[in-house]
Amino acid sequence: ALAWARASAKCLNFNSMLILLPVCRNLLSFLRGTCSCCRRTLRKQLDHNLTFHKLVAYALALFTAVHTIAHLFNLERYNHSQQATDGSLPAVLSKMHLHGSNKWLNPIHSNQTTVEYVAFTTIPGLTGVIITLALILMVTSSTEFIRRNYFEVFWYTHHLFLIYFAGLVIHGIAGLVRGQTEESMKEVHPRRCAQYLTQKDKDCSDNCCKDPEFGSIPAESWKWVLAPFLLYVFERILRVWRAWQKVVVTKVVMHPGHVLELQMQKKGFRMEVGQYIFVNCPDISLLEWHPFTLTSAPEEDFFSIHIRDAGDWTKCLINTFQQQMPRIEVDGPFGTASEDVFQYEVAMLVGAGIGVTPFASILKSIWYKFQQADQTLKTKKIYFYWICRETGAFAWFNDLLASLEQKMAESGKADFLTYRLFLTGWNSSIANNVALHFDTATDTVTGLRHKTIFGRPMWNSEFAAVAAAHPRSVVGVFLCGPGSLAKSLQKSCHQHSSLDPRKVKFYFNKENF
């Protein structure tokens, strides 16, 4: 059991070293920038930072359980050895504390000591209980249901990581687990002298063994977690410094569907397409920071976000802006998979509901590139799919698509962008209205040239059509939407990618916050 406890402790130290690295967002953005010339598959690994963070957390939970159970067995055996009077080796070693203060091996020195007493009165026991409870609270509050419906619970309990790391560092300093010292091992080797300890009453004329001496096994956790913890502290200091910089809200627009658009300016703010920021409103909460994808283009002199009423915090923010102009703090921007969109010859952009926001930035940037006749644009074709439940969700994005249609037609590149809008929720009045105006040049729902499609996309057909149109291209598939849709798209990417490296390849990319 001691071997299991020691082995799981090593694994806990290793995973505790890794757990903070995936949430160092500035580090990831820096690595993404320095890896711009690296292979595409290497850069894509950075997009799995939260998945990696979760896997490490599950590993921590598993090894914590193994470590705790193993030590419970250890304490029972320690207790049994202390109470034993049969002269066995465990019984003799448990009495070594009577021969000198530095010779004890068994931490239990009394027959009245219980497991509960050790757990709540010793430094290793008490810190073990505390960090286990902290870990349980962090893991259970990180479930998708809690994150979606009670984000504040997830946010606040996750800051128990400070208690976890403090307890982890302190956990081993008491030296409750001991072993024979190296000097004693040379003189009193267990294989040679174990029998002597159990038969001391017999005459020993020569070559007698001394009593073994034991020492505490030094604490090592701090060596594992010091560097990543300091890196994370530097990350938080940098984020606090950036958050203190003044943000000026230049324009507030309330779109249909209860979507709030904020246009802002901040000194020294530079962004790329598809990036996101964290936003805090001190009037609502001093500690809550929420991620929002930037909907503006790098070519614009402001940066903007669109906020949908999707929870208590966003509802309060929208109501606050309808009454006054509160102070806003911004941290970022941070990189995402969408930054690589212009690295592909062909791109498929898939947005679900408000998940269209990163692609608003991309399409705006394309509009500016057409305005400036940018010849460095590598992308030759973009397919854009937007899936919405209600017609009002299309309203705030219509103007951008309309202006983009017009600009591409003027530039002689009307085929550059193909977009499909899917409405998954409708009633009989909408269906009757569409049927009545079926022959009109523009869509009755959006007013655009492309007609809205009622229902969900048939992804096999869509991917087959793209593969047929671009038989030798590398196609980047970008999604900002739910996990169920991600599984469907990822499956289609595998099915429609050719094994021949000279033919079409689909690469799946998903936004992660």
Textual characterization of the structure:
The protein is α/β, with parallel strands linked by helices. 47% of the residues lie in helices and 16% in strands. The chain has 3 domains: 1-238, no CATH class; 247-334, Translation factors (Elongation Factor Tu (Ef-tu), domain 3); 337-511, Nucleotide-binding domain of ferredoxin-NADP reductase (FNR) module (Rossmann fold). The protein has helices at residues 2-19, 25-34, 40-44, 49-83, 89-94, 115-121, 123-140, 144-149, 151-158, 161-171, 182-187, 190-198, 221-244, 312-323, 357-371, 395-410, 428-436, 459-469, 483-496; strands at 178-180, 214-216, 247-255, 259-266, 276-280, 290-293, 303-308, 329-334, 346-352, 381-388, 417-423, 453-454, 474-480, 505-510. The strands form 4 sheets. The protein has a 6-stranded parallel beta sheet with strand order 12-11-10-9-13-14, with helices on both faces. It comes from Alca torda.
Rg result:
31 Å
Low-confidence stretches: none
In spatial order, strands of the major sheet run 12-11-10-9-13-14
Q: What share of residues is helical? A: 40-55%
Structural class: alpha/beta
Q: Beta-strand percentage?
A: 15-25%
Number of distinct beta strands: 14
**How can the largest sheet be summarized?**
6 strands, parallel
Give the tally of structural domains. Answer: 3
**How would you describe the shape?**
elongated
Tell me the span between the first and last alpha carbons.
40 Å
SS summary, helix count: 19
Mean pLDDT: 82
GO molecular function: metal ion binding; superoxide-generating NAD(P)H oxidase activity
InterPro entries: Cyt_b245_heavy_chain, FAD-bd_8, FAD-bd_FR_type, Fe3_Rdtase_TM_dom, Fe_red_NAD-bd_6, FNR_nucleotide-bd, RBOH/FRE, Riboflavin_synthase-like_b-brl
Membrane topology: Multi-pass membrane protein
Domain FAD-binding FR-type: 242-340
